[in-house]
């Protein structure tokens, strides 16, 4: 069973040495839909930080309770896009200016095996 959440904006950050290396805004504009905008700090961001951000967003209770994800990622950011595709199904991506828009299904949360 999936729960619905009111529109409660969330800010998620990944930090390294006190510096924000990747961040996301997450909203629930419509019941059952999570919307996020992902971005990394300017300059070099070590591999893995973007993946950690996607995981942090996808693991939020309100995102897990949704069935649809709408994500905005910087054009050409393969790490964000790759991890989103791993964590969702049926992803459709389209360019929009300097970003990509991803629409996908969020699979039901798996319960840990006993």
Secondary-structure blueprint of this entry?
Blueprint: E1 10-16, E2 19-30, E3 33-40, H1 49-58, H2 61-64, E4 68-74, H3 78-87, E5 89-96, E6 99-105
Parallel strand pairs: 3-4
Antiparallel strand pairs: 1-2, 2-3, 4-6, 5-6
Principal-axis shape: globular
Span between termini: 20 Å
Q: How many strands, which pairing sense, and closed or not: the largest β-sheet?
A: 6 strands, mixed
Strand content: 35-45%
Give a structural overview.
With 114 residues, this protein is of the alpha+beta class. It contains three helices and six strands, in the order βββααβαββ. It has a six-stranded mixed β-sheet, with helices on one face. Strand 5 (89-96) and strand 6 (99-105) form a beta hairpin. The longest helix has 10 residues, at 49-58. It is globular and about 35 Å long.
